[in-house]
Amino acid sequence: MALIVCNSFFMDRVMKVLEENGIDYFTSWDNARGKGHGTEPHLGTGGYGSTNSVTMIAFEDDAPLEALIGSIREANREIKRAADHIRLFQLPLERIV
To answer: What pTM value is reported for the model?
Structure first.
């Protein structure tokens, strides 16, 4: 299972990456609030109030996940500020019912 977390500004890019990898299955949460290591908080307040978006994807095979990881690395090379990079958190998936 993967959780993709990014500034909501980059959700169009995330959706494009999913489409390019043939991933048409996901659950997404908008307006997520938080702060990462060495990044500005995304709490939806302040002069440039931003929030995050979270996209959850359950993978039954490793190949699409590995391709997605490569595509996110590629997308992050185009994002100038490291604090703005799209993050992917991989978790074990025990079962889909």
So the answer is: 0.87
